[in-house]
Amino acid sequence: MAERFHLPPGATYLKSHSVGCQPRAAETLLRDRLLTPWRETGEAWPHWLEAIDQWRAALAGLIGAEAQDLCPATNVSAGLSRYISALGTATTRRTILLAPSAFPTIGYVASGLAAAGWKTGYLPADADVRDPASWAAALDDDVALVVAMHVSSVSGALTDVAAVAAAAKTAGARCIADCAQSVGVVPVTPALWGVDAVLGTSVKWLCGGPGAAWLWVAPHDRSTLDPMERGWWSHENPFEMDIADFRYAPDARRWWGGTPDVAPFILSTAGIGEIAAIGVPAIRGHNAALQAMLRDALEARTPQWRWPSGAIGGTLCIDTGTDQPRVAAALERHNLRADFRGSILRVSFHAYNDAADAHAAAEALS
Amino acid sequence: MAERFHLPPGATYLKSHSVGCQPRAAETLLRDRLLTPWRETGEAWPHWLEAIDQWRAALAGLIGAEAQDLCPATNVSAGLSRYISALGTATTRRTILLAPSAFPTIGYVASGLAAAGWKTGYLPADADVRDPASWAAALDDDVALVVAMHVSSVSGALTDVAAVAAAAKTAGARCIADCAQSVGVVPVTPALWGVDAVLGTSVKWLCGGPGAAWLWVAPHDRSTLDPMERGWWSHENPFEMDIADFRYAPDARRWWGGTPDVAPFILSTAGIGEIAAIGVPAIRGHNAALQAMLRDALEARTPQWRWPSGAIGGTLCIDTGTDQPRVAAALERHNLRADFRGSILRVSFHAYNDAADAHAAAEALS
Fold first, then answer.
1. Are B314 and B16 in contact (CB under 8 A)?
2. Predicted ipTM?
């Protein structure tokens, strides 16, 4: 895999839940699609827009979606905020339901809308986010939107998005899945889930760096939702330039907003290219094998730690309890790049990790 | 200037109102601050955040602002949308006032908020946007926000932002200035204007490419405005990770939102570096001299065209009327990169243009 990715020299990189390694193709793609047309032609925009279309097509291919249903977003927070901005006129319900273990920004975005009349509802702290019944029990008739984390950033829990979406639908609510911690290592298949929308990002498992997140909106809402947050690139024809005549684009571009951002989406295209070439099922299998290797080597010897149970995504989230300082020091000493949420150690194996990395981790942590 | 910027070979670039030429430093800076730390360290984020701080400091230096009052935004539309999202709780007024000649996205953003109770008010079509009395006459007691274009993208009109801000203040409204078409070629001095906020972008005269816009919020509103649109990087401490405890950052970071975008701000830093090194007053003087050269050579010979009168920014916006097709063909034939809004020809001279460019334009257009 060293021919596909830059692996940090002298270190074992186990933080693909954070950034992911840089594709070797990234620098060249950035030069070819961003810098060179800008330098050479004096007419960069047609090239830049084509580059965004190439990103959209690559991502659509990876997740089995139609390109027209994908919209660039700067980050998951912005994508969620924009999505919710369309719901006020689409429903009279005003509660956004999520789990307290959701990535904090989800709660910050939702609760930020209190002044606009939105309420944030949480599952009980002890509810199992993987059990659709937990969601069904919390779905009252004021819930407009369920925000489900496909994979939890703090526990690794893998949620059956289709089941949660079905529960939401039964209760008359929409469901959006946050796939920031899954896309690239766990199959993300919006069109098969019966979900209303999906958020994802290129930083982490897609190895594309920050700034290139995305919102997928289901075909059934292609032209029914009108985002209040918008800009000239949400217009059916951005170049019409009539300030008094805004018409939403008939597809996911309506979520786009202002002047397109380019560089992050070119970087992301390089990452998606590598992930697609290797194949997400292959990455998932490889990841599971390395997870098993680490568990086999270490779990029995660490009875004081809490290892994950049940379905998880690409990251092993291991609660090291009072051992945390010792474990952190060991990581540092062995140049292992992993991190913590509190006492929870997060270890991620990607396509570019191998058995030697799992052994190195087992040795360092034992 | 060819040592500072890549000038498109074989063409005369007169479209700095659109993109601007690429700084030669851009590729190296992108490698040094984005790609290399990502490849080499396995801990990219501290380097990336430092790069954003460097961008913020560079921009603050250029516009005489404090870095803490500057927040990154993806584009002007997103910055405006986010700014307005804080006003609903700060005032009971609900009208956003702008000129019909504002860049269309300003109107699209404002009118998109109708469902949230916002009204969009326009100056009369024949009002002079440069006359503060035009604004004063339209400022009724429902106006919460005046959006003034520092330089018009369609006429080039240069507005005295301080005078408009004073009129707004007298009427109990806030004022935000859109400096997308001025920053880099006309002095932009938020702290001296008495304005409440400023929007700008790196694409165009700052030669930084798309994706790196910004919102400056006046010190008097540093901690009084609470944007509804937010994310974990709007938090006083993004790494606190407590979904139930959001506290706004005590400065412009509160407008930031989700996971930071990096690449566009590094590119922008390269552009700001060149502009600052040359100096905006010098660029302004050079631009004015080349504008005068073109006018001297061409205006008297084109009585059928409408040339701008009064104060303008960096772009000559010349209404070519029914000559437009002929003029467009001439531009094409002479490899002059300029563009049109309808029949209005837009010609921009930047630091990297020279007398030969003005002569080439005069010759091609006569």
1. yes
2. 0.98
